[in-house]
Amino acid sequence: MVSVFSGVCHGRFIRPAGCLAFAAAVVLGAGCGVAQTTPEGASAPAVVVAAAEEMQLAQSASFVGRAVAVQKVDLRARVSGFVDERGFTEGGLVAEGDVLFRIEPEAYRATLAQVEASLAAAQATETLANLELVRQTELVARNAVPQSMLDKARAEAARASADVKGVMAQRDVAALNLSYTEVKAPFAGSVGLSSLDVGALIGPDSGPLVTLVRTDPMTVEFPVTERDLLAYRAATGGESTDDVGPVQLYLADGSAYALTGKVDFSDVTVDAGTDTVLIRAVFANPDGLLRDGSLVSVELTGGTPDPVLTVPQQAVQRDLTGPYVLVVDSAGLVEQRRIDLTRVTGGHAVVGGGLAVGERVITEGINKARPGATVNAALAGEG
Fold this sequence. Notes:
Helices cover 25% and strands 36% of the residues. It is built from four helices and 22 strands. The strands form four sheets. Strands 4, 6, 9, 11, 12, 13, 14, 15, 19 and 20 form a ten-stranded antiparallel β-sheet that branches. Strands 3, 16, 17, 18, 21 and 22 form a six-stranded mixed β-sheet that branches. Strand 19 and strand 20 form a beta hairpin. The radius of gyration is 40 Å and the shape is elongated. The model is unreliable at 1-35 (pLDDT under 50).
């Protein structure tokens, strides 16, 4: 019986054996490592390339760190009462001295008035005792009364004076408690969430009312192994972290933070558990982009810049064998090239070998290019 596949193969009647051989050739050609060129009539995929260039770059090292607020405090109530007013928006900014919570002040204001009245009475008694002391002093001088009367007057004056001081202390406490009915921001910053609203009963045992965080400036802390720290200092010629130049920061999405920072602290001890030294850098944060606790990448630079061969960081790809780039020659032919990747700094990949100055590497459209295929390459920055 003749198979139906013995009919037409590419529009021609051929024998079954010839058609099978042709199919096998197609399968082998698709599965083996044969260079895949662009089919005739099909347009070459468009990619963006950049030339490998020599740049002057200083030695650098990258570390993982976390943003830490310079100031962070949980505000608490120091007196008890119902909340009359909440003067902030959660997540918003407040200035130093802004009233965040106002506790009903009437009871504390009345207490202060009562103590002030007691103070006035005590001061009147003191005045009378002092006048009596003067009178008894004159009478004793004329031998009109015994010395015991003067001693008694002197004691009464001293007691009246002590009573005044005691009531004055009570007045200060009452005034202080009245001031505590306004929970103010001790510094400018951002406020977090709060479960308390107007009408809530709060007091010293209520726990934190709200968290206030100072966001500008912001510090970044990152641990550095002692081995890496010594190697970095040897490479840059620095003797301490004070020799480190501007510190570059990269956010969680890989983008570079617009402002550079400066190292302001290096711990004097090594963590015995991790063999690391804690380093801290300070960054201005006027827009609040850095948040307390954010995971970031820190890049330290230092030493004298040296000439190195670089390509854009996005041009470097990795597989199980290691890093590589896709090189495009003058005819648009793509070649996979293994490289010696030294380091990545400031968006540039430093290449220690495998490339030459001027060779073009694909930076955009990498997923559309294949080794051995032809592409339509345009230099980065060109229309």
